[in-house]
Amino acid sequence: MFAPDQYQLLDFGGGRKLERFGAYVLDRCSPSAEGIRKSDPGNWNKCDARYDRTRGEEGEWNSRGVLPSAWSITHSELVFELQPTPFGHLGVFPEQAANWDWITKQLARSPKPLRVLNLFAYTGGSTLAAAAAGAEVVHVDSAKNTVAWARRNAELSGLSEKPIRWIAEDAKRFAERELRRGKRYDAVILDPPSYGHGPKGETWKIARDLHALLTTCAQLTQGHRAFMLLTCHSPGFDPPEVEAILADAVFGSCQAGATAKALTVSCIDGRKLPSGVVARWPR
Residue 13 forms beta bridges with which residues? Predict the structure, then answer.
């Protein structure tokens, strides 16, 4: 997890969350906090900026002070550049820190460097964790600007010389092409969105496409498989369903030893904010 001076969830409720990223306290939307009472309503007046959606998935930041265009926080030796985006994201999802630690442990168990495929890789948290632990990583995300952001994080983390391939492409199309090429991987990491678009107009719908992509990933790792990691933030995908999808698509059996659980972020008052689901293999 993040050190307290790098990130803290200070409070949540009323469909929002109050977080501190380094020196800045931010008030952002959080659907999973709907119907929950804030623990300390008066504390929210001290935030440096508030994000509100204005149309669709986009919105605007209203700063009460001087919020920089970019700053950074760290997790272990990893450095993440943060930017307030029109979608309310900052470039890092704190709940993923537990997965980065898990990835590091899996790679430490291997007597040789592993080849890792990271799909829907965003700004590269899992890529950096894997590369820092000695893996060769192929990082795939459909957005060129996001891949560039991930590369900056690698440079900030001192990992720019590590064996990382940076690919701006549709994740499903890339995985299928790798299979046709006869490429093989030792591990696959996926963090798919509910909906998405590739750079050439490809469409992604998790309910329609996830099982088929996982089947492709199973073929890419057949005979080499060291670990699989799937995270999901889509409504309607609870831990039993995500676990079953991973087990069935990859192993052809729901009794294959994959395990899923809720992803959460711990608040300073002890409560836990739901933040999706993670399924891992091996247990």
Answer: 16
Q: Report the C-alpha gap between 47 and 268 in whole angstroms.
A: 16
Query: What's the pTM?
Result: 0.95
| Residue 267 DSSP code | B
Pair (40, 134) in one structural domain: no
Asked if 56 and 162 sit in the same domain, the reply is no
End position of a domain, from candidates 33, 50, 82: 82
List the chain pLDDT tens, one digit each, 283 residues: 899 999 999 999 999 999 999 999 999 999 999 999 999 999 999 999 999 999 888 999 999 878 999 999 999 999 999 999 999 999 999 999 999 999 999 999 999 999 999 999 999 999 999 999 999 999 999 999 999 999 999 999 999 999 999 999 999 999 999 999 999 999 999 999 999 988 888 999 999 999 999 999 999 999 999 999 999 999 889 999 999 999 999 988 655 678 999 999 999 999 999 999 999 999 7
At which residue do the structure tokens 């591990």 appear?
187
Which ranges of the chain would DSSP assign to H, the alpha helix?
Answer: 97-108, 125-132, 144-156, 171-181, 206-220, 239-251
CA distance 224 to 184: 8
- Of 83, 90, 51, 89, nearest to 69 by C-alpha is 83
Give the CA count within 13 Å in the CB-facing half-sphere of 128.
Answer: 28
Residue 1 within a domain: no
Based on the fold, state whether residues 112 and 245 are members of the same structural domain: yes
C-alpha 243/C-alpha 262 separation (Å) is 11
Are 234 and 163 contained in the same domain? yes
Task: Count the helices and strands in the chain (H runs, E runs).
Answer: 6, 16
Q: Which domain holds residue 160?
A: 94-281
Residue 261 in any domain: the answer is: yes
CA dist., res. 199 & res. 257, Å (int)? 35
Tokens describing residue 263: 């992803």
